[in-house]
Amino acid sequence: MKKLLKLWVLPFFIAVSARAAQPAPVIIVGGGLAGLTAAYELQNLGVTAHLLEANDRLGGRVATMEYENGLHGEYGMHEIWAKDPLYEYVQKFHIPTTKPGEPYSSVFIHGKYHPYIQDTAEEYFAALFNAEQRAQYDRWLKGCEVLYDESEAKGLTPKLAELQKISFADWIKSFDFSPKVSEFIRLSLECEIGADWANVSAVYGIQQYRVFLHGTEKCYHAQGGNKKVIEALADAFKGPRTLGALVTRIVRTKKADGTTEAVVYYQKDGVMRSMTAQKVILTVPYHILHSIQLEPPLTDTQWQAVDAIVPGMYQVVHFIIDTAANKILLIDGKNPFPALTRGPLGVVYGFSDIPPASQKEEIFSLLIHGDYTRTYLESRDKMRVRLLDEMDKRWPGFSKYVHATHFYGYHPAATPAWPAGHSPLDATHASLREANVGLYLAGDYVSSSHAEGAVKSGRVAAEKVAADLRAH
Ligand SMILES: Cc1cc2nc3c(=O)[nH]c(=O)nc-3n(C[C@H](O)[C@H](O)[C@H](O)COP(=O)(O)OP(=O)(O)OC[C@H]3O[C@@H](n4cnc5c(N)ncnc54)[C@H](O)[C@@H]3O)c2cc1C
Asked: Has residue 6 got a pLDDT over 70?
């Protein structure tokens, strides 16, 4: 009987393995959030994709470093915002998170420390602003909400098109706010975008102020590090993947029957190889598009859209510190971090949770952003001395507690940003969302920036590819 069963099952296995040997109809280049989202969503739509990733790990700019002493720290994406589509996956895959955080942070304004240790944002603002400053900020926030909602509902309306012409800095200056209110808005925005407020359009700034609008958004961190989100997505995607595959060339042709064929060339283990599919979703960061040979090339409008993007720059520093430092860092036993500074320290993230008394060491991190990351050519030894000096100025004695320092640099562009005259809402930019002879772009520069843009664009690309495959 057993023998009979085996004979009956055999043809089934042959059929399955013959099907498994079929090349996937879609190749996804890049295994960051956009690539993994596209792969997973295509699978949900019944389409198999083969993922090619240059690195020996998945996740791209979502990256958690684990240290020998059991500590870990993010050196890529820090916050997962409640309204980001990424948070839907956190819920769907039941990924445990730490206690949710608030978007508002402690700030250093004109040299003075305003720690956020109050129980509510209301009490924090009461301590930070006087009545007139508070009224200015609230009025502006309300106006910002109206403009943000308009951009979401209708895209680039005539009013928003006018605003897109000027920088966020010039827009805020036009209100003639108290310097403290302007500086607060500036600090809150610049750490989100990784760029100087003068270098981005008012429209892009409004889009990125989202987390402070409509009563503020909570932010989440995966327990054990945000790489847990990548692991969950990578597990949920059952299709084939090749790591250590650096794609250098993508050649597509359109056939007479309207279908497309793409040959993707990649280097692996020092050998140039190729793989064929019908469609390709390319999810590399915008500044890497230039280093891949695309035949046919992107359209002129698509290149104009890419070339208009300016870099949002980040550099992450992890200090491994003695937890005894908490006596100079905590205020009344409360955690005042993150603290926003304008200067070489950027966002002093500190630690998200106060460690238990039994713990001897903790990670204390900085997210340096914008022009202050331009010191990437400076020696790390010099930079460490300068940063510790800055930390000591604000928290005297901090450097005594530092056991080790680790730097994580992103050059030239950690996130995309849009200067005056541009935004992800304009027609030039919309061209990036159009298929180009079997090639579909996805990534955090295609529809908007950060994890939100990466996940959104990965989903949209998956839907388009599935629909186009069905059509032909
Ligand atoms: C320090 C830092 C902090 C951040 N903080 C936040 C935050 O708090 N909240 C938030 O929402 N966002 C944050 N971001 C932004 C967010 O991490 C990114 O926007 C998002 O992860 C981008 O995903 P992606 O898939 O578009 O690109 P990537 O993650 O860059 O993925 C692209 C992948 O393509 C691969 N690749 C590149 N070239 C090739 C090639 N030639 N062949 C094959 N593969 C290739 C890369 O190795 C990479 O894995 C932060 C980013 C950084 C750097």
From this structure: no
What separation in Å is there between the alpha carbon of 148 and the centre of ligand 1? Answer: 25
Q: Which single residue is written with the structure tokens 């997505």?
A: 233
CATH 2.40.160.40 matches 22-62+233-309+420-471? no
Helix axis angle for 121-128 and 131-154, nearest 10°, is: 130
pLDDT digits (tens, 9 = 90+) for 40-86: 999 999 999 999 999 999 999 999 999 988 899 999 999 999 999 99
pTM: 0.94
Cα distance between the two ends of the chain = 46
Among left, alpha and beta (phi > 0; psi -120 to 50; other), residue 403 is alpha
Task: State which of 29, 61, 445 you would mutate to test the pocket of ligand 1, scoring each by most atoms of that ligand within 8 A of its C-beta.
Answer: 61
Domain boundaries, the chain: 22-62+233-309+420-471
Which residues have CB under 6 Å of ligand 1? 29-35, 52-55, 60-62, 76-79, 245-247, 283-285, 288, 292, 314, 316, 410, 414-415, 443-444, 450-452, 454
> Which of the listed residues 89, 250, 450 should we mutate to test ligand 1's pocket, taking the one with most ligand atoms within 8 A of CB?
450
